[in-house]
Amino acid sequence: MPVKWLLYWKPNQGSTLNSQILKEATKCVESLNGVKKEKWKATLEYYKPFLRDESNRAEFPNEVVGVSLPEEPSKYYFIIRTQRIVMEADLSFQLIVQKLQSYTCKLSFDFEGFQYQLGDFRLRVGKVIPTHALTVRGIVMEVTNVIAFE
Q: What InterPro entries does the record tag this protein with (predicted)?
């Protein structure tokens, strides 16, 4: 299992974030002799239960987070934060949940950017944007020690 470190940076409330900061972070990585590899993209979705009967509210987790990762394109991960449960499923499980209408997606974010190789480390630098919008909501940096992965 690789050793990872994740940094999520978002601006102070009331200030705006533009892609210029992302360009500066990318220049810093390249100035460290980082070799630009390929693009990467991950998706995070917040699900809320779709309850037809409010008396069942206690039986369902109030919030479920779904994540798709570039390392595992055929898998989808559901996280029940209140119970600290992570479930690994096939990508089609996401469609099953939507067709059953047990949970509905309330908010979705895309993490996209470039991957760099810096010696024994893989560094991903990207922006965080709502799925159907263009507004940059934050910047994410993920550092993975690839030697630990081998």
A: Mediator_Med20
Among 94, 96, 99, smallest CA distance to 78 is for 94
Q: Which residues have a Cβ under 8 Å from the Cβ of 44 and sit 6 or more positions away?
A: 65, 66, 67, 108, 109, 111
- 31/19 Cα distance (integer angstroms): 18
CA angle 42, 10, 146 (to 5 degrees): 45
Is the distance from CB of 16 to CB of 97 less than 8 angstroms? no
Read off the pLDDT of residues 24-71 as tens digits, 9 standing for 90 and up. 888 888 888 889 999 999 999 988 887 777 766 667 777 888 888 888
CA 34 to chain centre: 23
Report the CATH number of the 3-51+60-149 domain: 2.40.320
| Residue 19 in tokens | 């892609």
Predicted structure pTM score: 0.74
Task: Give which of 148, 111, 120, 123 is closest to 31, Cα–Cα.
Answer: 123
